[in-house]
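We modelled each protein-ligand pair independently. The example shown here corresponds to the pyridoxal-5'-phosphate entry; the chain sequence is given first, followed by the ligand as SMILES.
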Amino acid sequence: MLNKGGNRDTTRLLMDRSVPGRVGVVTPGLDVPAAPLPDAAYLRDDLPLPEVSEPEVVQYFTSLSQLNFSIDTHFYPLGSCTMKYNPKINDEVAFLPGFAGIHPQQPAEQSQGALELLYRLQDFLTEVTGMAATSLATLAGAHGELGGVLMMRAYHLARGDSGRTKMGIPDSAHGTNPASAAMAGFDVVTIPSDADGNTDLVALREIATDDLAGVMITLPSTLGLFDTNILEVCQIVHECGGLVYGDGANMNALLGRAKLGELGFDVCHLNLHKTFSTPHGGGGPGAGPVCCVENLAPYLAAPVVAVNDAGEYSLAEPDQSIGKISGFHGNFGVLVRAYTYIRTLGAAGLLSISGNAVLNANYIMESLKDIYELPYDRTCMHEVVFSADRQRERGVSGLEVAKRLLDYGFHAPTMYFPLIVHEALMIEPTESETMETLDAFIDALRLIDSEATAEPELVQHAPHTTPVSRLDEATAARRPVLRWEAAAD
Ligand SMILES: *Cc1c(COP(=O)(O)O)cnc(C)c1O
């Protein structure tokens, strides 16, 4: 059977290629007495198993593994996700038997090396964020947010300050922020962005009263912008007795240049599976450590790793900890990868990450802003948010532009987010791509814009070269088809 491109379709389901009597593996003859089979009632003659050769099995699974776009095969500028290259050395270190084979219940005296690694990682992340303490227990960005806002709640309650029910969140924040705040029992109050894309200080002052528990600020914001009001934001919130949460998922933009703790944030999380290069997508695994100032350290999620004067490492529960919110010590393999990544790069390497990530995004911004609408025309951070409004006027939506990029061999950018930008296309090139790749990507977007004028149908029905084209992503995620079923004939 040939596929759309006229090639032999190696992804055709194994069941559909089955030929009676074809054999892939021959098992050796019995050299022990045959055991009796179970009752005939438990045996099936009609079990549909594919009869295929070994090479067919290998071709089938290898082809399937190559159908997706991946960071190792394509440029993947998915905004807000930091889909950058994950150095293979990180995996190799995580696979070392002493790390990969360790049992989470192993006593501390038998796992000193692993605990030391966690302890050092806590220190590195504390340093990177300019905070005082870190817990590695939380397993994702959103999970870190939940841990962080539960700490804010515990802090206020421990001081007998029980009237702080509100959490202020800018409309440019990541969508997980309001969800985490609501989950921790807060009423979410949305703070609008001002005309430049910063937090609107007038609106913030209005809600900065004694019922404000705090605010959650994504920095850089999901507009890819550094909020130049940030010092005032922290000051206003602190003056009314509130705390400032920093969503540091996009630390790729700030590494080595700005520390949330020094800007006035009280607690934040990092996404190790973005900034610190663990592969992600498909739901994990990840790690979202929480870092905080001295005042909040007693509330960190357990366990944290401590060391005594004799240099012995142990797991500890901070005095007034919000408790355990994950199993064991967090996602250990991800933590080993982050540690390896940081040690491989050193301070100078971390600094060059943010430098190149921001340079690459600004290069794309400057190279395309004559053609794609740029709603906030100012220096961007690690990502740039365009609007496809001008293409929309010619009947081509942001989604269609993004899908057409697949035909040119690029993963689509993030679409329709942030919500405050119409027809948003959010592009995050990361630091790991070459200028040649960025130029090819820019060329493709310019070409798609001319196609929108000359041949809009071409863009409207893209992609044309992928094995499947428009998927219903929500249904695919909620009701995945995981079993083969015979086609009705
Ligand atoms: C990715 C992201 C999150 C959520 O992280 P998860 O690990 O997917 O839960 C939160 N905030 C921002 C700004 C992000 O980019």
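The chain has a mean pLDDT of 94.
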